[in-house]
Recover the amino acids of this structure.
């Protein structure tokens, strides 16, 4: 068995998408930060085992949004605002990041963090099921970002795809699902989640209106660009 498919002791049937040494090297390139808000958000995730995207993916999200000049982003699943932090930096003054999360306490934490970072005025945070919030929100988006419960991934894709502008992006986290999508044997966290992610990924790569790619960093980030023609 190669090092790229070496199971962990806690999860013997899970494939590690990127070798830990490579992840460590990439983190080293990113360097340190003196941003106290970002450090507090990351420390809270560490203490509570809260699944944030981490800094490598955060920087990737900000870069993707900046490259297409994104001004309007919808997040399906926002937690306490870690990914919104990166998107809000990218959209700039006058931009909007529409967040959704089922827990009011996450909105409260997000407001505290993002206000301290000077980004809260760029954020609209809705408490409720992400899909319901999206249906109730009008307009077209530069980016739709998906990080809901994994069983809902195909539904989110079907909802979002028609409301992304030409040249805009659909981005989804956890699309490698700790390697389960490629493992012959795996133990799922929730029944059917791996199958849902596999279906979601295939739907996107088979869609002729989008160009798609998976960045394997951390747990896999899918980026699909809606074609201009």
């Amino acid at each position: 068995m190669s090092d790229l498919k070496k199971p962990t002791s806690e999860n013997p049937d899970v494939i590690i998408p990127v070798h830990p040494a490579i992840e460590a090297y990439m983190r080293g390139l990113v360097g340190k930060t003196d941003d106290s808000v970002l450090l507090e958000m990351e420390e809270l995730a560490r203490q509570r085992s809260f699944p944030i995207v981490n800094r490598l993916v955060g920087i990737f999200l900000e870069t993707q949004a900046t490259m297409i000049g994104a001004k309007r982003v919808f997040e399906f699943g926002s937690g306490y605002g870690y990914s919104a932090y990166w998107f809000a930096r990218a959209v700039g003054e006058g931009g909007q990041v529409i967040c959704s999360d089922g827990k009011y306490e996450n909105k409260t934490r997000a407001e505290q963090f993002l206000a301290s970072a000077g980004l809260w005025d760029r954020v609209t945070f809705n408490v409720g099921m992400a899909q319901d919030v999206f249906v109730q929100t009008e307009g077209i988006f530069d980016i739709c970002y998906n990080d809901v419960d994994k069983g809902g991934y195909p539904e989110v894709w079907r909802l979002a795809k028609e409301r992304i502008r030409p040249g805009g992006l659909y981005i989804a986290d956890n699309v490698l699902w700790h390697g389960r999508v490629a493992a012959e044997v795996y133990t799922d966290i929730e029944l059917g989640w791996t199958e849902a992610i596999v279906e979601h990924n295939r739907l996107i790569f088979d869609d002729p209106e989008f160009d798609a790619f998976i960045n394997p960093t951390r747990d896999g980030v899918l980026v699909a660009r809606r074609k201009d023609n």
Q: What stands out?
A: Residues 3-226 form a domain with the Rossmann fold fold (CATH 3.40.50.150). Residues 100 and 133 are 7 Å apart (CA to CA). Residues 1-10 have pLDDT under 50 and may be disordered. The chain is about 40% helix and 20% strand.
